[in-house]
What we know:
Blueprint: E1 2-3, H1 8-11, H2 15-28, H3 31-34, E2 37-40, H4 42-58, E3 70-74, H5 102-109, E4 113-118, H6 154-162, E5 167-171, H7 178-184, E6 187-190, E7 211-215, H8 218-229, E8 238-239, E9 246-249, H9 251-255, H10 260-275, E10 279-282, H11 288-297, H12 300-313, H13 325-329, H14 336-356, E11 362-366, H15 381-391, H16 396-401, E12 405-409, E13 417-421, H17 427-443
Parallel strand pairs: 3-4, 3-5, 9-10, 9-11
Antiparallel strand pairs: 1-8, 2-4, 5-7, 6-7, 6-12, 11-13, 12-13
Helix pairs in contact: 2-4, 6-7, 8-17, 11-14
Amino acid sequence: MMRHDSPLHLSRASARAAIAEQLTAMSAALEPDRVAILQRRDASALAEADAWDALVATSPGLRPPLFGLGLAVKACFDVAGWRTTAGSIVLNVEPVATSDAPAVARLRCAGAIVTSQTNMTEFAFGALGQNPHYGTPRTPLDPTRERIAGGSTSGGAVSVALGFADVALGSDTSGSARIPAAFCGTVGFKPTQGRYPDEGIVPLSPSFDVPGLLARDAETIRLLDRVMTGATSTPDPIPDHLRGRRFLVPADFALDQTEPEVVIAFENALLRLADRGAEIVRRDWPVLARYGEISVAGGIIVAESYAWHRPFVDAHPERYDPRVGPRILLGREVKAEAYISALRRLAELARDYEREMSAFDALLTPTVPFTPPRVADLDDDEVYYPTNRLSFRLTEIANRINVPSISLPVSPGRPIGLLFTGRHAKDEQLLDLSVAIQSALRTSE
């Protein structure tokens, strides 16, 4: 048995019907779910869908690869006609975008239809998804809607999970696409930096920023990646087993400070992967904990963020989220020596990582060490800040050394993700592998 690309784009008979269904879902949503959406373009989206339907009806051979897929776009990406607020009120006086960010344009040219602009942590500076200006999205996996969706691509993950969109375009600086994917039961992918165009995006930290993708399955992520990279060759078929695949589990690092529920789910997933032929190798790798420490000590993110925000935050610090503005201002105090030394040390660690991982297909950890906390529990800063820092402890590895990483749901209905982190520029191999892993997890239920 072999698996191929997702049938989602192939089975869709009408773009209009698909987009209309998603717009209806947005309109019917309860208030806690509506905060995932900042802007909509119903009439324009339906007009685009009609145009694609007409083209395909007259010229079936021109059917685009993303035919009729609804696309939710994070508010830090330019979309023509919309103001790019990045989830803040600071940019509300700026002019609207006159053109799409290249990443948005590539997806639209391939048949995806932008339906909405999605909520996010202000300026992507936070991994829990809270936003005091536009509301905090909640994970749909909590029926009470009391628990966070994760961030900073909070609205995108909620939109995909609830069927407001088929796919979401987000960003990922420390885990911002993969953390909400884990908390909302979707798939989140962070590519190697430079694989996708990154113009037309409000930055957080250019050393680590990268566009990210979210969808309900790995096959669709694989398809989106081919569109984003302009791949034209026929993709290899995916085997339905994991024989010959080797995963390195850094047990000391992966399970430190991890909730028992997450540990149990993780260990059960390892057994399921082993049942399908995977070799699981456990090996302590304590230096992994240093990646994040080095970044913080060097002030990389705050320095780069302040460089962009300086004219705004110096003039009107009061307009910022109280949990975002003060951290950006810390960038004024970063010394050049510390910043440069940190970047050099991370480059050394990237080379060490490649050597250590040369015999393995991926590094395997949980995506987040805990399940989604309640929004109300994070009102206290003494709870919020350590929780926020812990949330991206595992995901930030990929950003600090520039390697691809993907989060897959551990099982349907559970806000726990499995994180597979690959090797530099080996994105295609990791995505192919993720399809096989997803199949193994599904059939082992």
